Amino acid sequence: xxxxxxxxxxxxxxxxxxxxxxxxxxxxxxxxxxxxxxxxxxxxxxxxxxxxxxxxxxxxxxxxxxxxxxxxxxxxxxxxxxxxxxxxxxxxxxxxxxxxxxxxxxxxxxxxxxxxxxxxxxxxxxxxxxxxxxxxxxxxxxxxxxxxxxxxxxxxxxxxxxxxxxxxxxxxxxxxxxxxxxxxxxxxxxxxxxxxxxxxxxxxxxxxxxxxxxxxxxxxxxxxxxxxxxxxxxxxxxxxxx
Length: 242
What we know:
Blueprint: E1 4-7, E2 10-15, E3 20-24, E4 30-34, H1 35-38, H2 52-55, H3 57-60, H4 64-77, E5 81-88, E6 91-100, E7 103-110, H5 118-130, H6 136-147, E8 151-157, E9 163-170, E10 181-182, H7 189-196, E11 211-215, H8 232-241
Antiparallel strand pairs: 1-2, 2-11, 3-4, 3-7, 4-11, 5-6, 6-7, 8-9, 9-10
């Protein structure tokens, strides 16, 4: 992942642009922020180092109290993540809270489909975190009942590094990738680390040019954000299969 130094004590990398991200330390101090958030505050320097709940009242408005209560509940109950549906300027929005190491990740994006409630997304998180199935085809089917995608498949990676598609579920009922094999170059260790960083990954626009993410603390792990872009090799693969 390429870094570009913006100043003597600030670093920037590229993340996907479909959402917004703020990372807080244990004192709720902002230690990382995306370009899409900065645009509403003029400069990253104006945000980094400030208190989140003091700086975001004009963005979340009356919903800020809901966000604060959800954050406190998450920390008090020892949960690792929570999804909160709110409205920001009359736009339905998902706020995703996630604890990682010593930091709290707050991500939000506009909700485009009313029929996918936050409860369903929490169910998906739980399913992906806890499944130990004997029948991967049933898992693909269960996931697709929530997501309604054209194709869901499971890629099994061998100790040798080679991988193959062992199960799938398609919207049209016709087999598409099941049995397909890949060389070990398709899932190298650095790519595996990317997918291990989150229970699921999401790339709604393969032509996305991305946005800057600014941070000062080098111990922050940007891979733990859902906005982290897919590995370049897999972007090429997905574009190839359309």
